[in-house]
Amino acid sequence: MIIKFSPQRRNDNLTLSKQGDILTINNIPYDFSPIPDGGTLPREAIDCEFICGDVERINGEIHISLILPHGPNPTRDVAFPEPITVIADGEVVLPE
Fold first, then answer.
1. Domain count of the chain?
2. Using CB atoms within 10 A of its CB, is residue 19 exposed (0-12), middle (13-18) or buried (19+)?
3. Closest C-alpha to 35, from 49, 50, 52, 23
4. What is the distance between the alpha carbons of residues 50 and 39, in angstroms, rounded to a whole number?
5. In whole angstroms, what is the distance from residue 1 CA to residue 14 CA?
């Protein structure tokens, strides 16, 4: 799973965990396993305020963009986060 981040000044938190093609965002699971290779799930079809773009499967890998909330004066890693590749299941470590 490839996760890109869009930093945004917000007062809420983001927690992520992955189990196969299921991404749990703030304790709500989103199952992306039905997306076929080369397929796209439009952003409008997903009821999640943290998903900020279409979800695609490219070469078997889920690609997703998420809002990364931060407080005032974020670190450089939070203000300009690099995409992350998540291979292992479990908690996803966010940029700090």
1. 1
2. exposed
3. 23
4. 21
5. 17
Percent of the chain with pLDDT over 90: 97
Sign of CA dihedral 66, 45, 55, 43: negative
Give residue 62's domain range: 2-91
Asked if the structure places residue 96 within a domain, the reply is no
Give the C-alpha separation, 49 to 77, whole Å. Answer: 22
Domain annotation covers residue 22:
yes
Write out the two tokens for 62.
């889920």
On whether residue 75 sits in a domain, the answer given is yes
The whole-number average pLDDT for the span 36-60 is 97
> CA-to-CA distance for 12 and 25, rounded, in angstroms?
13
